[in-house]
Amino acid sequence: MAVRNDQTGALTPVAGSPFTAVNQALTIDVQGRFLFAIGSHSIRMFQITDSTTVAYHEVANSPFASPNTNQPAFIAVEPTGQYIAVVDRVGQNPGEALVETFQISPAAVGGPALIPVAGSATELDSTPVGVAQPPDNKEFLIFMGPNPQSLDPTISQGSEFQALSIDPLSGFITGLQANAALPARGDSFAMDPQGRYYVTGTQNNLLEFGVVQLVGLGGDGLLGNIQLPQFNYPASLWIDSTGTFLYVATSNLQNPVVVNIYSVNLQTGQLTPTLSSPLPGFASVPPYSPDPTGSFDYGFGADQNTAIASTVDPQTGHVQVTEVKTTASATATSPKMSSTKDQGVQMSDTWLSNHLADLFGADEFAVNSLHAQAIDRLAPGLRIEARAPDGTIEAVSMPSAKGFLLAVQWHPEWRWLENAQSRTLFEAFGKAVGAHRGARNPKEPAA
Length: 447
Prior knowledge:
Elements: E1 2-4, E2 11-13, E3 27-28, E4 34-38, E5 43-50, E6 55-58, E7 72-77, E8 83-88, E9 98-105, E10 113-116, E11 122-123, E12 128-132, E13 140-144, E14 160-166, E15 173-174, E16 185-191, E17 197-203, E18 209-216, E19 223-230, E20 233-239, E21 245-251, E22 258-264, E23 271-273, E24 289-290, E25 297-300, E26 306-312, E27 319-326, E28 336-337, E29 350-352, H1 354-360, E30 383-387, E31 393-397, E32 406-408, H2 420-440
Antiparallel strand pairs: 1-2, 3-4, 4-5, 5-6, 7-8, 8-9, 9-10, 9-11, 12-13, 13-14, 14-15, 16-17, 17-18, 18-19, 20-21, 21-22, 22-23, 24-25, 25-26, 26-27, 28-29, 29-30, 30-31, 31-32
């Protein structure tokens, strides 16, 4: 935990920090009593014991789950602080997701607890491409991609947007719109960190071009639209902390991914390409988490206790790293890896250890990763080699292993011939196999 310097973005650790790592993004309830994190088919609950330092500990009976909890992906809160909603990637029907709610019970027998709200499970037509919650916590937004297993011909190839709320009296989900699917395929999603608008990225399945659309929130009439050239699709989206720039990672079959910059007119929602586009040095959208209360965006540094603070140039939209701040005195910047999403693959922005950066010979590149499951607690002997901003462990190694041992969360086998980093990973493994064979059979040449 750290306090931000509003002028420089520097982070100063609070007393007692760092606290026990959760290895997941933390969601705070609106009354500032508890923190919640995604566990393994469950929700972990932490009690804040010091409101000044935000020190916390896991409550006695954590984690919590209902019979419906299956691959939870997002936690939303409601304005009164009585309930949370959990978006599960796996629902009751093939290819569908599910939203369920839990009551926050501070005085439950045995200690604070999350109690499943009976009958709250609400089926969604497909699985989320992106989920976000505006700062006022009145609703949470879900944008879904196609569900090929659906009998509905629209959502089977299309997309769907839902803005849902939690009823503070019953704890049930409200606002679900029936027959809300659209024929354009859902590719990507982002929300303005200050909650004024959201952006969807889709592709026209018939004419094969991408569309980026901005829509205002809270009754705001903001509206913007971009049509991309044919065979160009919005693989991922990112909005900076001020909400004045939109970054669109565009992919097609022939050319490398480029990140185009659009300025956002906050009065009308109009999107205008900047003359400084595309974003130099990036093969995917910036791997930073926006701070909605300031002008800084943050990412992981060289280790778990290092943060990179960056700003966006108000004229060009170029990303500028302004500060590297750690719990003590580290000053090294971090190798970073960012990623894109395609065909149901989950976007994951990830930092790399120096070991992996040396292996791949690059400090930034795109991966595809599907977080249906992930490591909850690291086993003894394993070392974290890559981690996503929400704390998800993306790669591990075993330093004590007698040979090559590297496990990754992403999918290097997907289109590996088109990806230099995937080829590098398989080549490293192949060389290790050849060396092992040569050691066991000295008369045979190593591969």
